[in-house]
Design goal:
- The longest helix has 16 residues, at 59-74.
- This protein has a domain at 10-74.
- The protein is built from 7 helices and 2 strands, in the order ββααααααα.
- Strand 1 (10-13) and strand 2 (16-19) form a beta hairpin.
- A two-stranded antiparallel ribbon has the order 1-2.
- The two termini are 29 Å apart.
- The protein is mostly helical.
- The radius of gyration is 19 Å and the shape is elongated.
Length: 190
């Protein structure tokens, strides 16, 4: 996302211009389609394109176009929040195995509550209006006192020297309670 570029509402792919609806709720509908195990990959791509482009595109062309749209406009990495030491200095980032810290489906109610808390924004009223990139930027920018950010901190917690056994056990229970299971990628195979 660049602040000096307009939000994406159209794009050119293989010399053809497409209008695209990247409202956050439409993108979330596409995620639902991609998780549907009753559909074949080609069907998933076709349905997602119908949702995003309001056009019927079939076969290999649908899969290629969906993969392009997903990579270019939808797949945005959720950034791990910066941790600070007691003096307020940023702590070095860990180069450990990348953990999934947000699940857009499992965390829906926490995300809704956090947007309401932080921005006074009712996400149901923003359906069809709030662009996916805006939604994502606001989600990444949630203040630390929101429920979603507190859950992220629990998910990222690692035991430290000096933590009491009781505190460690409480945090382990919370980590299990708020754990995120990895899902498959949203891209489809040709």
């Amino acid at each position: 996302m660049r602040l000096n570029d307009p939000l994406i509402t159209c794009f050119v792919y293989k010399d053809q211009e497409y209008q695209i609806d990247l409202s956050f709720d439409v993108v979330l509908d596409c995620f639902d389609v991609m998780k549907d195990k009753t559909l074949r990959d080609g069907e998933k791509a076709e349905i997602c394109l119908e949702l995003l482009l309001n056009e019927s595109i079939k076969g290999k062309e649908a899969i290629e176009l969906w993969n392009y749209i997903y990579k270019e406009f939808i797949d945005i990495e959720f950034k791990q929040p910066i941790e600070y030491d007691l003096k307020g200095n940023p702590m070095p980032s860990r180069k450990e195995k990348s953990e999934k810290i947000i699940d857009i489906h499992k965390d829906a109610e926490y995300i809704y509550a956090s947007f309401q808390q932080a921005y006074g924004m009712n996400l149901f009223k923003e359906q069809g209006k709030l662009h996916w990139h805006e939604f994502h930027a606001l989600l990444n920018g949630l203040p630390p006192d929101t429920v979603m950010q507190r859950i992220i901190q629990i998910r990222l917690w690692k035991p430290r020297k000096g933590d009491s056994a009781e505190y460690k056990e409480t945090m382990r229970k919370l980590k299990r309670m708020y754990a995120v299971n990895d899902d498959d990628s949203e891209e489809v195979e040709e």
